[in-house]
Write a structure and sequence with these properties.
The chain is mostly helical. The protein contains five helices and no strands. Helix 1 packs antiparallel against helix 2 and helix 1 crosses helix 4.
Length: 148
């Protein structure tokens, strides 16, 4: 059974939206340079949050694409050539993103370690401040108040 014209247009549009989303991710990934310094931790976190939102959009588009069934007859049509071309572009974008991520893996791992160290230090500081909490509360100072 052939897809109707509206289905074909919608499916092709979903593929194009996914391609555009991946192009945005690739552009972000190429432009992003990180050093292993504490100031980059926040930038690193923000970058990955934005990227995760875009990847989630791609996953949602993929789920919508999967709802369409392309018959053998559809694969012979002119429309399918556009779909196939866009699918190939998507595969190439994913390949490029993975290649850049592999190159940046060492830096990303170092930044993740820095983040973990910062979290660990915050936990220790919190424990220390709890330990001194009673001493620094107003009750402790009252014992040394000469006005009483």
């Amino acid at each position: 059974m052939f897809m109707n014209s509206d289905d074909r247009k919608k499916l092709l549009e979903l593929f194009r939206q996914k391609r555009d989303c991946l192009e945005t991710i690739l552009k972000m990934t190429r432009e992003r340079k990180f050093d292993v310094v504490e100031e980059d931790v926040e930038r690193f976190h923000n970058f990955f949050q934005k990227r995760e939102v875009l990847f989630e959009k791609c996953r949602n588009l993929e789920e919508q694409i999967d709802e369409y069934i392309i018959s053998d007859e559809d694969k012979k049509s002119f429309f399918y050539k556009d779909v196939e071309k866009t699918e190939n572009e998507i595969k190439e974008l994913v390949r490029q993103i993975i290649a850049i991520d592999e190159k940046n893996k060492v830096i990303m791992n170092k930044l993740l370690r820095l983040i973990k160290d910062n979290i660990r230090n915050l936990k220790v500081s919190k424990q220390v401040s709890r330990g001194y909490g009673e001493f620094f509360s107003g009750e402790s100072y009252g014992r040394f108040d000469s006005s009483n």
